[in-house]
Every structure is written in C-alpha cells, then in structure tokens.
Amino acid sequence: MIYTPKEEIVKRTERLRELMEKASMDGAFFNYKIDYFYLSGTMQDAFLYVPLEGEPKLFVRREMRRARRESPLSELIPIRSLETVKDHIGKPQRVGMQLDVLPYNFVMRFRKLFADAELADVSPLINDLRKIKSPFEVSLMEKAAAIAKKVYEKIPEVLQEGMREIELGGILESYAKSLGHEGLLRVRSLVFEAYSWHILSGKAGSIVSQINSPMGGLGMSPAFPVGASRKKIRRGEPIMIDFGACYHGYQVDETRMFAIGYMPEPFAGAYEACREIHYRVLDKALEGVTCSELFNYSVELAHKLGYGDNYLGYSHHKVNFIAHGVGMELSDPPFIAVNQNYPLEEGMTFAIEPKMVFPRQGACGIENTVLMEKDSYRVLTNMDEKIIIVD
Amino acid sequence: MIYTPKEEIVKRTERLRELMEKASMDGAFFNYKIDYFYLSGTMQDAFLYVPLEGEPKLFVRREMRRARRESPLSELIPIRSLETVKDHIGKPQRVGMQLDVLPYNFVMRFRKLFADAELADVSPLINDLRKIKSPFEVSLMEKAAAIAKKVYEKIPEVLQEGMREIELGGILESYAKSLGHEGLLRVRSLVFEAYSWHILSGKAGSIVSQINSPMGGLGMSPAFPVGASRKKIRRGEPIMIDFGACYHGYQVDETRMFAIGYMPEPFAGAYEACREIHYRVLDKALEGVTCSELFNYSVELAHKLGYGDNYLGYSHHKVNFIAHGVGMELSDPPFIAVNQNYPLEEGMTFAIEPKMVFPRQGACGIENTVLMEKDSYRVLTNMDEKIIIVD
Predict the structure, then answer these.
(1) Nearest C-alpha of chain B: how many angstroms from A33?
(2) Would you say the pTM of this structure is higher than 0.95?
(3) Which of A198, B104, B138, B227 is most solvent-facing, going by the fewest CB within 10 Å?
(4) What is the ipTM score, two decimals?
(5) Contact A222 B248 (CB under 8 A)
C-alpha cells in the first residue's frame, strides 16, 4: 500500500492556511472523508480540525491503529464524545465546514461545538487546493491510467456479438479490479452516483438520463436508469466504452470506440471530428484563454466540421461542458464549460470528452484524462485512439 | 423493466399524508432520489412536492419522456427555474425536506422557495413508511435473493487457492451483473459507501476499519480501506463472503462461509453458534419483544455458548447491532440494536448477522435477509447454510 508522504500533507496544509487566512477563517473542520483523506492521509472514521495556527488535529472514531499507520499527522485523538472535542479546539471566531456536501442536520448538530463562532463554507477552499495535482498525485493517476489501458486492450478478447452491455461491463470491471482498480468511483453530487460500466451500444447511446451527460444510457431498471443495460450488443453498431479506473483513491476517466465487424457512418466520421476538436481545444488551452472561451471554441469547431446539431447531445439535451476535472472525485474543478472564466493551469487534471449524439441511432466520442504542464499538456490515458474493430 | 404500479404510489402517498398531518406539515419536498423514486416511480433528475391535499407534483429536470414512462403520477412539470416552481406550491406554512441527507448549502438555497414557511425534517416520516415493505417490494427483494443464491452457488466453481480476495469479488460481481444485479448498493450514510465485494479471508476477517461492522477488512488502499483486498486466499482459512445484491433498486444482504480444504477451529464451532443465535433471536422476535431486548438476548446467548469475547467483534471494537433493515438502502429501519425500543412488525425486512471475530485469526458468521410475516418470519436469502468446503 502507498501512504501519503508527510511532505505532501505539510504542503497541502500550508496552502490551505493561506486560503483560510484570506477567507478570515481561524479554523476549519473536515468531516467529508475525501477531503480529510487529502489533508491527513487516512480515510478511517474520523474528522479533522485545522486551526489557522498550531497542529491539525485528527479526531478518530475508528480505527486508531490504522489511522496512525496511514497518517503522518502528529495529533491523533480518540473521540469519546463531542464535548471532549471542544477542549481541543479553543475559541475560534469563524469556522469552516464542508457545507456543499455535509447534510443539513449534521451541520446543525456539529456546529454546537463552536456555537458562538460564525459558520463558513470551506469547500471552495479545499476544491481550489485539490484542483492542482502534485507529482505524487499524478503518479497515482498514471497508475490508474495504466490499469485502464490494460482494460481497453482486453476488450478485443472478450467483446462478442450478442453479449449484453452489462455483461461486458462486469467482465471489464472484474479484470480492472484484479489489476488494482478500487471498484467505486467518487463524485461530489447529490444526483450522480459514479460507476465504471458506462457502456452504450447502438441506439442506447442516444438515450438521455438523469446524469448531466449527452448520453445516459438505458441502465438496468427505473431505479438505476443509467449506464450499461441488458441490451445485446450487435454487429455494425457503435460501442462507446467510457470506463473510469481508480487506484489508491485517484481516478482517470477515458472513452474509446469499438465495433464488431465495422463502424458504420455517421459514427466513423463523427469520431474523427471529436478527435480533432479534442486536440485543437487542448492546443488552444496553451494560449491561456479561459475555459469558457475554450468551450465556445469547441462549439464553433463542431459547427464548422458539420456536426453542430450532434455535438454534446441533440436539441434540448445538449450539455454545457466538454471537460470536468478528475482526481479523487470526477467532479473536481476545472470545468471547460460555459461561465468558467479562468484559464487552465499547470498541475490541473481533467477529462476532456467531445462527443456526438445522433437521435435514435447512437453516439460516439473520445475522452482522455489530461494533465496541464508548463507550456504543454500530457495525455495520461495513453491508450491508442484508433476505433477498434473486433471480428 | 418493471415499473412501480400506480396503486403502490397511491397507497404510499396516502400513508405519507397521514404521517404529515400528525407532524403538522402541509407540504414536503423530496430531493433525495431514493425517496422520490419511492413516491413517484422514477429516478430521473427531478424533485417531488407532496402537498397535504391535492396531486403530488414531480418537477423534472431531465429526462421528461423517461419520467413519464416510469411514473404513474399525473402532474409532471418541467423545471425551467426555481421561480416557476413557486407558482405550483402555493403558500404552505410548514414544509418538510430530507434534512438528514440533503447538503446544508442545498437546503439553504432551496428553502428560499418557501422562505416564509417553517422548515421541518421529513426523513423520519419517509423512513417510517419505507420500513414496511409491500408484497410488490418483497417480490423485488425475492428476485435480488435469487440472484444472490446463484452467486453463492457459483463460488465452488471459481474459488481457488492463491486467488486474491478482490479477484474473487470481481468475478462474483461480474456474474451477479449478468443476472441483473445493479452493481451499486445504497446506504444513507456520510461515511459508509456500500459495495458488493465484502470478502474477507483468514486474518483479514479480524481487521477493523472505518465502517460500523465487526470486521472491516483490509481493502485496496488507504483511500479504500474496507472490504476485499489483494490478500491471497489460502487453504484452511475461514473465507467470509458477504455479498449484497440489488434488483430494480431493492437489495438483499447475505453472508455465507467457505473454506478451501477444511474449515479450521475455532471457526467451524463459532459458525454453528452464530446460526443458533440467528434462529433463536428470530423465534424470540415472534414474542413481540423490542429490538433492544432482542439484541441483549443475543449477547446473553453468545456468552452462554462460550463466545462472549468474540461476539460482534472483540474488545473495544464490538458493534452494537445484530441486524439492520434492508430495502432500497442498507440502512433502512429497523435495527436490532441497543436503544431500539420497538418490536419487529409484519412487513419489515432486515439483515440479521451474528458474527464472531478472533483477534489476529479471522472471523465467521452468517447473515440472512428476513421478512417478518404475521406470526412468523421468512428467510428471503434461502441459500443453503452449510459451510461450503471447496477442494
């Protein structure tokens, strides 16, 4: 197992404090596990308090021995009752909590710990931190990408006419797990539950669902109406395999196109247009323009290439983004989307996914997880991008 | 696909209104998808408003066509802006929201829709409703149980010495998906992410983790520190396979014990003790005693059988429950646990799981999903309960 190095935690905490100072917070609690993992190195049942000055304190419910092994923090305190926590935090004036994800009842109860202090939202700060990945974080994403690559390379061996989308999804996930994929993907959302098996074949690619995506898929039932379904995969239809992989908490997101026998039009041509948009947007990003401008540029390109009606969905189902940040969650900043008035920066990682939908026919597209570097970018999901035809 | 029948939705809504009237709520919003699915039949991106009188209104963001097909409700309204929602809800005085799960920021923003009304928590009401399953709901749980049974029957074919826990988990999940298992399990919790592959072999069964369970397992990394791990499964060690299955949103939870070659002591004997506790507690439940008494009774039995130190964990790692409700979430009421001062009732479904942990050695136990009937109970997960020895 790989543990988060102490220097990582120290640096992250320092940067957090700079942001806290600017936001006039003299303390912040982290009860949502993705974020306290980022700041402590452990995901055991615990919560973290970061004061503006002094050591961060990790309050551990269970399991202390594992928390000690995983976390380089020096102050790990067993939780007996919330009353005892009070003694450790002093009298802060303005305290942050993760108000975007913590349930209302939880916040109301927990904030009694600091009843006299003002309550503030610390999530914008931690999102701001997390959007820039360190070389350590990138190394974990590279390992996730290596797993995904092996999964995609396996597909020609297992894909067969007549197999159900969900069957293929299960086989790929099983293989990914044997390589170290953690099975669950994570996302900061009330509606969207992330999963690995977003496999849409033929018409299923043109079906919209609850998720904010150009193509939701049929899913398994009204209670799980997204992703792979029991539809059988046929010869000569586009098969979109959008498989996310996760290694030690770090995710990559990737899409490649497959077909049995041959890839029919309009999908073969539209796929090439998606690739062109993908790389021209990345090149444009190096000029330092804002994400909002990048998004508009991609829409212009789609129109010029003759796919304006199909780009990112059809009619009122179009989505307003072409890329989402990826890291510990599939919903990290940045977003190449409308109203995102900031440029991409060195250290950001995101999944860029130009996709086309043809009503009642299907969908195609490409997706890569990309790292912004100094004056360049690097595609982490370095699987070959040709359409793969299986016989 | 199976859609929720109209009579189901009508009955659930009627019962909800009785509870709302008692709680003096003249309207309630359901934004958390498990609950609005229960009351509307669709899980498309939407939210539901149930007024004390008049038709429930489902506000749909996407996808309206699928929502119409899935939901028998008559008033489906596309959401253009929250302002337009205001026009549909009138002037309620006291409005419920799902305050146990909805994020703080979301509630604060959403409640502007009814800024002059008092805010109340509707989750205790919906939990109260959902804890009693209808025959329709039970039929879906029976189908989930049939999938789980086939998964357990498959294990002797695939379990091999030297295979990793996660490999076995992947193979079983893949097989379950091919049978209709939906892949994701659901739970109403900030900390616990549910998953199907809780496979713990040998010493891994004695490892505690973030989850409120006697045995958490090693997991895959510090970022996913629960469940199956990369540990290799060996001959002559207890292999606990705790596999949940989900069909059309309804789950069952189940545990059976396996070994390669032979099941060593103390696990073989302790497993029989677990079975005895399991059935004696269920028999006692028919006397109408409270869940708290049932829990204490189970602890007494464990002591009498000589496993007091091992029952439900060891030393300070013991958990305080022996059963959790199961349905659309793994955390439904009832709980056979301390401080649960109500009896089991007809129509309740729950997973009862007496388990024993032996420090540094491993764990064993049984788990069944059970339905309370009039003056009897029925085990839905009707897989054979013998320890299965694979050669």
Answers:
(1) 7
(2) yes
(3) B138
(4) 0.96
(5) yes
